[in-house]
Specification:
Strand content: 5-15%
Shape: globular
Number of helices: 27
Radius of gyration: 26 Å
Strand order of the largest sheet: 1-12-11-10-9-8-6-2
Helix content: 40-55%
Largest sheet: 8 strands, parallel
Distance between the termini: 74 Å
């Protein structure tokens, strides 16, 4: 029987209703939870959104609605509570309400110094961030939350056929961190599996027939010990009566297929977009009497599916005659926007080429109908798909001048004029900065007034002159605050920018912006990725005027802020009709034009942020070097058109870099700033072991938490950093940009940061 489903759906709502409810609750969360009306509104909004999303899935004809993919902050954090392994360091009492504990782990506790927010890492190679579980040898597990079971009851009460979803036990442990050196977190499996069995048993008792159990680490290069853990794990979990759909995504399963094929589960879901090469082998080895769910609709991108190709995959000889075939998206639709319905201002040609989450549900349904009833039953859908394929071949997509410029790239265009030591001496002579120079990563708090001015300008209710005046006033305010604080290298604060990628997407040809194409990045933080639909170029300067104005207000150096080519690539929806290295080179040349114009305008320090570089790393190591070669080259193309005394910075955050240190060094940025405070500077060990030669600014406080760290805490972190990195190469800065924070806490935290740098100068020199 052919069935249809999705591994997950976006959580935020059609108009980001969950974001609004969350942020309203956080503003009033100092009130007792049992009397806080905003908490009740938040809980009610969650219930309303779940019901709406399930209704969409049912309306689209899916056989199952997915339950358990909803989260108020993060699905891994949901599991930390569900499995009863909240970190003891938070000191929660038994009567601390569940959501209060939940948000304290996500955002930090203001009541205790050990209540620093849990670490975040990128969810595989996406721009979504998950909360990292913390494991100790004595970590205990228990069923400690009713939320999942309550949601199952909600869905069943609404008349839905329910497929519950869990993050699998091996992936849950693998994606966490050991907090004791020498301890293997997978050794906790014997304690964890009985709790998973209890959960599965309870789900079955609630009438759940299928549980989607996600094990995305099967797409990684896991070692034999980890791979063998799946055998014992699923031998144990299969003792429960509920049917398990082992779900993988984001990558090929190469080298693991034999092990997977022997697991005693009732079904297997595979990503047939990113792991298309596996399909023939999996079809041959996966038992014919078990369900095979094939994800043919891309859950990571927004291009309308080529239905002819998708149907050809599912009609291939290796799948012919298989009775238990399920049609699905490749992964959760969490990674795409909600619906095209709100995109009323988009170029009709582009809109015809796109499918967001709601539209992908319809594509899945059409494919199922085509398989069951033949092409004639979906003739309208096939015609639309074929028209789109032809439309994307037009001149509105392709630019011969851009293609020629990329083709004419000469050897050496990606190299600075002199070695770092030569540049460093010239830059120190030019800027005369003190030891432990202080700076920020770029953005300052975006107040309601700033957002209102931008929105009014876009609506046309604020003139260009009025808008420019408003932004200049905010820039002047930011410069004045930095003068008061005594920072060494200033930034203009980025009041004119809505988002570090979206802003550039609005200026670059070949890129388009959506009105409501929001995607969750973490918690309530949403981004609106640009759509790279054609060849990319920069028709006009994008940042020069604002940076020049800021520099005119101070004698201190003002650092220009740009987003790097790979981050723009990674954080956009990228065209799938052109090779990604070519698109990266196009963007790199556009950024290079901006860098050289900034230098001509007298700006001596230019930061080109690349937080997306590590994220773009393929999940399988055999593909790493090819990616790193073209990705790092793109950064160097963007940054290498300047003189030796111009200082190039880059920023990276929320990722592990130790395994790609030679490539990080190959970027040849004069200064690299990093997120490091949540990991207690452990990230720097790799830079030390590698003997990273250039200057480094490890973040000394976590900007995702409203908590203001003390001077002593920052000094302690800097002392740890100076043990592994030469003090004369250390900068002092926050973990990341400050746009999501409030001015009061920002000023207090930066004041402490400047004081900590001064103490370090007195201590070390």
């Amino acid at each position: 029987m052919i069935c249809s489903h999705i591994p997950g759906f976006p959580r935020m709502g059609a108009r980001r209703e969950l974001k609004m409810a969350l942020e309203t609750y956080w503003k009033s969360s100092s009130e007792p939870d049992n009397t806080n009306p905003d908490l009740k509104n938040l809980v009610a909004m969650g219930k309303q959104l779940r019901a709406a999303h399930w209704a969409l899935q049912k309306k689209a004809g899916l056989d199952w609605v997915t339950v358990g993919d909803f989260a108020f902050y993060d699905h891994v954090l949901n599991h930390i509570q569900l499995l009863g392994c909240e970190p003891a360091r938070f000191g929660f009492s038994e009567d601390t309400p569940e959501l209060e504990r939940y948000f304290a782990m996500a955002r930090g506790s203001l009541t205790t110094e050990s209540g620093q927010a849990m670490s975040m890492l990128k969810w595989f190679d996406t721009n979504y961030h998950y909360m990292v579980p913390e494991f100790f040898p004595d970590t205990a597990f228990s069923v400690h939350s009713e939320r999942l079971f309550d949601e199952v009851k909600e869905a069943k009460a609404l008349g839905h056929s329910v497929k519950a979803v869990l993050l699998g036990p091996v992936s849950f442990l693998y994606l966490g961190r050991e907090k004791v050196e020498g301890f293997d977190r997978l050794s906790l499996l014997p304690k964890l599996l009985p709790v998973y069995r209890q959960i599965l048993s309870r789900l079955h008792a609630e009438g759940v027939e299928w549980v989607q159990i996600d094990e995305p680490v099967l797409g990684l290069d896991i070692d034999d010990k980890c791979l063998s853990a799946f055998e014992g794990t699923y031998a144990e979990l299969s003792k429960e009566a509920v049917k398990l759909l082992l779900t993988t995504y984001f990558s090929s399963l190469a080298d693991h297929i034999d092990t997977i094929s022997k697991l005693p589960v009732a079904g297997l879901h595979i990503d047939a977009v990113r792991g298309a090469e596996d399909l023939k082998e999996i079809a041959a080895k996966w038992p014919a009497d078990k369900v095979l769910s094939v994800g043919v609709i891309d859950g990571r991108n927004i291009w309308k599916a080529d239905l002819d190709k998708a149907l050809a995959v599912l009609r291939a000889p290796e799948l012919a005659g298989r009775d238990n075939l399920w049609v699905a998206s490749s992964c959760s639709l969490l990674h795409v926007p909600f619906s095209l319905e709100a995109e009323t201002k988009m170029d009709p040609r582009l809109k015809q080429c796109l499918a967001f989450a709601a539209e992908k549900l319809e594509e899945i349904h059409a494919i199922k109908d085509g398989l069951q009833q033949g092409d004639a039953a979906i003739a309208w859908a096939l015609d639309s798909s074929r028209q789109t394929v032809e439309l994307r071949k037009g001149d509105w997509v392709h630019n011969a001048q851009v293609a020629r410029r990329v083709g004419d790239l000469k050897e050496g265009m990606d190299r600075r004029g002199s070695a770092f030591k030569v540049r460093q001496a010239l830059q120190r002579k030019r800027f005369k900065l003190p030891a432990f120079p202080t700076t920020t990563i770029g953005s300052f708090p975006q107040t309601p007034q700033i957002r209102s001015a931008r929105a009014s300008f876009k609506r046309g209710s604020l003139s260009e002159a009025e808008y420019k005046k408003a932004m200049q006033e905010e820039i002047a305010f930011c410069i004045a605050q930095q003068e008061k604080l005594g920072l060494d290298v200033f930034v203009h604060g980025e009041p004119e920018r809505n988002d570090m990628v979206e802003y550039f997407g609005e200026f670059l040809d070949g890129m388009a912006m959506t009105v409501n194409g929001w995607v969750q990045s973490y918690g309530s933080r949403c981004v609106k990725p640009p759509v790279i639909y054609g060849d990319v170029s920069r028709p006009d300067a994008m940042t020069v005027e604002w940076t020049k104005f800021a520099q005119s207000l101070t004698d201190k150096p003002v650092k220009a802020m740009l987003t790097g080519p790979i981050t723009i690539l990674q954080w956009s929806f990228v065209r799938d009709d052109e090779a990604r290295p070519v698109v990266a080179d196009q963007i790199a040349l556009a950024i290079r034009d901006e860098v050289t114009d900034l230098e001509k305008a007298g700006i001596g320090i230019i930061q080109i942020d690349e937080p997306g570089l590590r994220e773009g790393l393929p999940l399988r190591r055999q593909h790493w070097q090819a990616y790193l070669d073209w990705a790092c080259r793109a950064f160097r193309i963007a940054s290498s058109g300047v003189g030796d005394d111009t200082q190039i910075h880059t920023h990276m955050c929320y990722a592990e870099f130790n395994d790609i240190m030679p490539d990080i060094a190959s970027l040849d940025a004069d200064v690299i700033t990093l997120e490091a405070s949540r990991g207690d500077m452990t990230l720097l060990k790799g830079f030390s072991d590698f003997r990273y030669p250039n200057e480094i600014g490890p973040g000394v406080y976590d900007i995702h938490s409203p908590r203001v760290p003390s001077v002593n805490e920052m000094v302690s972190l800097l002392k740890q950093a100076s043990k592994v990195i030469d003090a004369d190469r250390l900068w002092v800065n926050p973990d990341c940009g400050l746009k999501t924070r409030q001015w009061k806490e920002t000023f207090e935290a930066l004041d402490n940061m400047v004081k900590s740098a001064k103490l370090m100068r007195e201590t070390v020199y």
